[in-house]
Amino acid sequence: MLTLALGLDFGPFPAILLSVIFFAIWYVVIRRAVRDGMGDAMKREREARGAIKP
Questions:
Q1: Measured between alpha carbons, how far apart are the two ends of the chain, in Å?
Q2: pTM of the entire structure?
Q3: Domain assignment of residue 12, yes or no
Q4: Closest CA to 43 of 32, 54, 27
Q5: Range of the structural domain that residue 48 is part of
């Protein structure tokens, strides 16, 4: 949503760039969490909230 709003102001390229940066940050964060053994806990929490199917 944030990248979409910025994209409307500055054209499509910065929105794409921000999306890639956001994705890269989340990818690193999630990978680090999984490597630390928190991946299963995060998955169970998402399942409990109904975000993903078990």
A1: 27
A2: 0.39
A3: no
A4: 54
A5: 20-54
